[in-house]
Amino acid sequence: MRVLMVAPTPFFGDRGCHIRILEEVRVLRGLGVETLVVTYSVGRDHPEVATVRAPRLPWVRALPVGFSPHRPYLDALLLGTTLRAARRFRPDVLHGHLHEGAAIASVVGRLVGRPAVADLQGSVAGEMVAHGHLAARGPLPASLRRLERWVLHWPARLLPSSANFARELVDVWRVPRERVVLIPDGIDPDFLRPGPAPDDLRERLGLVGKRVVVFLGVLTEYQGVDDLLAAWPAVMAAVPDAHLLLMGHPNVERYRARAAVLTPPGSVTLTGRIDYEETPRYLTLGEVAVSPKHVSTEANGKLLNYMAMGLPAVAYDGPVSRELLGEAGVFAPMRDVPALAAAMAGLLRDSHEQKLRGQALRERVITHFGWPTLGRRLVDVYRTCLEER
Q1: Any idea what DSSP says for residue 313?
Q2: 351-369 and 301-308 helices cross at what angle (nearest 10)?
Q3: What tens digit of pLDDT does each residue of 50-96 get?
Q4: Which helix (DSSP H) or strand (DSSP E) does residue 160 occupy?
Q5: Which member of 107, 156, 180, 302 lies 3.0 to 4.6 Å from 385 by CB, making a disulfide possible if both were Cys?
Q6: Which residues, at least 6 apart from 353, have a Cβ–Cβ distance to it below 8 Å?
């Protein structure tokens, strides 16, 4: 079987959707499925992923996380590149990531006579409103919702990455239930697993003798980084040897400056971008992991990484974090900064609770979110689409 994936993003970028694409390619290869990823001109090649890139534009050298005014014409170039790639590669199925990828895969699929599936993290209109890029009411959001509804009814199957969004697709967007197949974000339990922290890394980052709370993800306001920095002084007051390790990008210098103002001196370290292959080494430095993401409609893959590493995790209470962490998670009410601080401090002070919750989360992620199981489910979706065709 051959699958052509459409990735309207600067793949590969050590984050969210990019990691999902990489893990899907890996598990599909093990199941005998050949993949080819079509993506933007910007980004970096990954040695494990066969990639075709759209034509390069000299004035587009990088793209920010989230909305960009460049995307409409980059998507037009990606459409043409996908059609040319499909004629050469001759896929059995087209697999579009995000809404733009779903639209492109559906159009090209019809042109070449192949079914398309859509891999979705959440509502594009809902996310733009939540991120402040779009007003909640008015003609523009109404038009975007109409376009989104149209796109959602094109593919043969929709593959939401959370049960919360799967319900929304059926109840709000009126997609027939049989066309929605939950494929949650997953992990490779052999790649992400507990282990001793490297002494050289601990020394290089100045963490010797520290009780470390780790955050690994995109450094933005909607990921809760501002709330995390605001909560940190209270954590330090309760646990004086605590240390916050913020790993990720962009906005590194901005948050380094905010940490200098808001938190006790020397209590926060920002590493910048972490290569995905280095993720396990860096996460072993933590005793507790945190994800104060407050956009409750999106997937939250970092929680799965924490779980696979056997780290007890603190998160804001929402449907996605509850779905992932279950009863083994530690939750603070949404946007309640004092409660967030108390949850982190409480776990840091109780090593027995850390161990119990970490073990439970590791067991849970292997059982419910391991890519070997999810990969077989994905191949079943492809086969069903081909049989229907």
Answers
A1: E
A2: 110
A3: 999 999 998 888 777 667 778 889 999 999 999 999 999 999 999 99
A4: strand 157-160
A5: 156
A6: 312, 346, 347
86 neighbors 113 (Cβ within 8 angstroms): no
* pLDDT band, residue 303 (cuts 50/70/90): very high
pLDDT recorded at residue 233 = 98
Structural contact between residues 148 and 165, judged by C-beta atoms closer than 8 angstroms: no
Geometric angle at alpha carbon 47, from 42 and 53, rounded to 5°: 30
Q: What is the pLDDT of residues 227-245, one digit of tens each?
A: 999 999 999 999 999 999 9
Residue in the structure block whose two tokens are 């999106």: 298
Beta strand segments in the chain, E? 2-7, 34-39, 51-53, 93-97, 116-120, 157-160, 211-216, 242-247, 268-270, 288-291, 313-316, 330-332
- Is the backbone peptide bond immediately before 250 cis, with ω within 30 degrees of 0? yes
User: Distance between alpha carbon 194 and the CA centroid of its chain, in Å?
Assistant: 21
Strand, helix or coil for residue 123: coil
pTM of the model: 0.86
Reported confidence tier of residue 128, pLDDT bands at 50, 70, 90? low
Residue 211, Ramachandran bin (φ over 0: left; ψ between -120 and 50: alpha; else beta): beta
Residues in the chain: 389
Residue 54 CB coordination number (10 Å): 22
Sheet with 313-316: strands ordered across: 268-270, 242-247, 211-216, 288-291, 313-316, 330-332
- pLDDT at 131 exceeding the cut of 60: no
The strand pairing partners of 346, in sequence order, are none
DSSP three-state, residue 136: coil
